[in-house]
Amino acid sequence: MTEQKPRDPDALHRHLHDIQDLLSRQHLVENLIHRQRMPHQKLVESITHKQNLARLRRKLDRLHPADIACILEALPLADRLFVWDRVRAEKDGDILLEVSDAVRATLIETMDSDEIKAAVESLDTDELADLAPDLPPDVMRDVIASLDQEEQAQVRAAMAYPEDTVGALMDFDMVTVREDVTLEVVLRYLRRFEALPDHTDALFVVDRDDRLRGVLTLEALLINDLEKKVSQVMKSKSVVTFAPDDDAGGAAKAFERYDLVSVPVVDATRRVLGRITIDDMVDQIREESEAEIFSQAGLREEEDIFAPVIRSVKNRWAWLAINLMTAFVASRVIDLFQGSIEQLVALAALMPIVAGIGGNAGNQTVTMIVRAIAMGQVEPTALWRLLRKELGVALINGVVWGGAIGAVAWWLYRNLELGLVMTAAMILNLLLAATAGVVIPLLRQRFGRDPALGGSVMITALTDSGGFFIFLGLATVFLL
Amino acid sequence: MTEQKPRDPDALHRHLHDIQDLLSRQHLVENLIHRQRMPHQKLVESITHKQNLARLRRKLDRLHPADIACILEALPLADRLFVWDRVRAEKDGDILLEVSDAVRATLIETMDSDEIKAAVESLDTDELADLAPDLPPDVMRDVIASLDQEEQAQVRAAMAYPEDTVGALMDFDMVTVREDVTLEVVLRYLRRFEALPDHTDALFVVDRDDRLRGVLTLEALLINDLEKKVSQVMKSKSVVTFAPDDDAGGAAKAFERYDLVSVPVVDATRRVLGRITIDDMVDQIREESEAEIFSQAGLREEEDIFAPVIRSVKNRWAWLAINLMTAFVASRVIDLFQGSIEQLVALAALMPIVAGIGGNAGNQTVTMIVRAIAMGQVEPTALWRLLRKELGVALINGVVWGGAIGAVAWWLYRNLELGLVMTAAMILNLLLAATAGVVIPLLRQRFGRDPALGGSVMITALTDSGGFFIFLGLATVFLL
Prior knowledge:
The structure is a homodimer. In chain A, 68% of the residues lie in helices and 5% in strands. By secondary structure, the first copy, chain A, is mainly alpha-helical.
C-alpha cells in the first residue's frame, strides 16, 4: 500500500510530541508577532517560522502514512489542517485511507478537486472504491474516467458490493499460475515482477477460464524440487475461499480460526474475482469491537474527539432520548405509589438500590449471552439450560446481597418488615433481570435480529421500572 | 500449528448442529434403554449406539482443531466431555491451545497425566509454554524433562516473560540466512526444508553471532536475480523489531498500522530470540476487546456459559458489591432529604430521571475519552480543550432534554417551579457528568493507571449521588 518502510512502533508517541512541540512554537511565534501587531506577511518571512516549517516537513517526510494518520487524529482541527497542508502530496491517498471517517471528512473539506485527484491517483482500485463515498461525486467521476477499462470495472464492482461484505473489502491484484507448469517456470515467471501484491503468501492456480484449481503456497514453491509440476504440490482440497457477498465479519472469524494470510474470492462458478488479505481482516476485527464498545455507550459512531460540539450532540442525542423515555416510564411507576412513599418515606431512599443492582446483574447476564451468541456457541435450543443457570446465579446473589442490604435497612430504619421487603424485592428483581438477560438476546437471535442491539437499554428499562414496581408494590401490600 | 486443512468457514454451524444431533440421538437411546431398565452394558453394545459413536468419530476426524474447540465451547459440560473423549489424541494439544481458559480447565480435569503428556508432545515449545500454567506441575515437569536442552531453554524462557509481553507470545522456529550468500544458495537451502515455520513471509538475515542484519522478504527472494547477494536485496533500514519485554498490545497496534505478518524479536544486542506472527496478534486484538467488553459489564473474565452456577457467582460478585456500595451512598443522600420528599412526594418520582440521564451522558463521554487515550490520541495537555468541548455538549443536552422533561414535570404536577428546578438539576448534573467523564480517565492516565478501569462505575456513582443531591437540594431551597 505504501512504499515507505514502517518504523519502531513506540516511536509514534515521540513523533506526536515532537510535532505538537513544533506546532506550539509556531503558535508562540504567531502570538509574539500578533502582540507586536506585526502583519502576517512578516510572520511568514520570519526565520523561526521558516525553520519550524522546514523541521515539520522533514519530520512528516520521514513518517509512515499510518503514523501521520494517527497524529492527525490526535490534533485539534486547526493544527490538523496546518499539518495536513504540509504532508507530501503522494502520501495523501494512503493517509486518507488510514484516518477515521470523521477525520477524513475534515481533511477532504479543505482539498480542491485537483488536490483530491492527485491524492487518489496512486491508490489501487479497491482502495479508491473505499474512499469513493467520501469524495465529491464530480471528482469521483473524473477519477474513474481517467482509469482504463479494467480498472473502471473493478472500481464499479467493488463499489457495487454492500459494506461489510467480502466483495467490498477484496483487492484485485494477485498472481495466478497454471497447474501444468513446473515450479522452475513459476520462479522464472515471478522474477519478471517488479513487486508482488501485498500479503502474497500463495499464488492462485487457475485454469484458462480463470477458475480456481487450487493454491500454490510460497512455502510449497520454495521447498519442493523445481522439476515438480504445480499440480503436484498445490493445495487443492479444502482450500478456504469466500464468495463476494459473504459477511466480512464471518470472513474475519475464519482468518482468525484458521490463521490465514490471503484467501481467494470466487464467484459461483469458482472464477477468481479477487483476494482478501489479513490486513483488511485485522481492521475489520478492530472496527467490530470498536463499534460494539461505542454502541454499548450509546455513541452512534466513532467520534473525532476534537469535532465541533454540535456534531457530538448529533452523535449522542438518540441514546439520551431513549433513556429519557425509559426513565420517564420508571418515574411514572414510582408516581403510582405516591401514597405509600408519603406514609413511609424510607421507601424513596431504598428504591434506587433495588433498581440499580438489578440493572447491573442484568447487564452481566446479557453481555455474557451476547458474547456466546457472537462466538456461535449458543443455539436457541439452549434457552432453558441457560435460563436455569442464570436464575440460579440470580437467586444466590439475591439472597446474599438482598439479605445484606435488607439487614442494613432493618438496622437503619429499625423496621424488620422493611428489611424483609427489601430482601424479597432484590431477589425478585434479580430474577427478572436474569430472565430478561437470557430471553431478550435469544429471542432477537431467533427472529434474525442482532442479539447485541439495545439489549442493555431494554434490560435497564425493565429492571428500573420493574424494580420500583416490585419494591413499592411489596411495601404497599405488606407494610401499610 | 496443525496439519489438517481448514474448511469453509460457514460450515462451523452445520458441524455444531450435526454433532448436537448425534448427541441428542445418543441421549434418546440412553433414555429408552434407561426406561426399559436395560443395563448400561447392553447400551454400549446396542447397534444404534455404536453407529452414533462411529459417525461422531468420523465427523471429529474431519474437523479442524479450531472448529472442534468452538464446538466444545458450545456444548454443556457432559456433552463436551463425551465429545472430548472421542477426539483423536493427536489433535488434543492444538484444541487445548484454542479453547478458552474456562473450558480448558474442564477438559484437563478429565485427562490423566499420560493423556496430557501425549496431547502436548506434538506442540512447539512456545505453545507448550502457553499451556504450562494450566497443566498439573508434576506433568509439566516430566514433559519439560523429555525435551532436549535447547527446547527446555526455550520453554523456560517463554514462561519467564510476564503475560501480555512480546516474549510470552513469540515462537522460536524461524529461518535465518547469511547476507554474503546469493539468492540461488538461499533457494537451494530452503529446498532442504520439510516445511517452513507458519507465517514465514521473510527470512531473518543474521551475522555469525545471530545478530539481526536485516530481513529477506520472500518477495525479494522471488523477484530478484539468483546471482544477487542477500545483502543487496534484504531490507536493513527501518525494519520493525520488538524486544521480548515490549507490551503485546503495543506490538499488535504496530502489526495493525504497518500491515505486518512476522516480526523478529531481538535482545538489547540485536541477537534474534524469536518471532512474533500475525496470528498471535489477531488473538491479542480479539482478547483485548473481549476483556474490555467484559470489564465494562463487570465480569471478571470470559465465562464458560455452561459453567456451574457457583463459578459464575464468583466471577460476578465483585462488581455487584461495588455497585451495592455506590447505590447505598446514593440512598443515604436521598435520606438526607426525607423531609422535602414528605412535603412534595413528586420529587421521589422525578429524581431517578435526573440521576439516570446524567449517568448515560457521563458514560458516553468517558467511553469516548478512553478510546481516544487508547489510540494514543490524547495527551494530558488536551484536558482543557476536551473539558470545554464536553461541557458545551452537556450544556446543550441539558437545556434541550432538561427543558423538555422540565416542561413535562410542570404539566404533570401543575407546578412551574418544580419544572424549573427539574431543568436546572438536569443541566447541572450533565455538567457534572461531563467533567467527571473527562477528568477521571485523564487523571488516571497521568498517574500511569489504566484510564478505562472502573471509569463508568465512578461516573455512575457520581451522577447518581450527585444527581439526587442537586435535584433534592435545589427543590428544598426553592420549592419548600
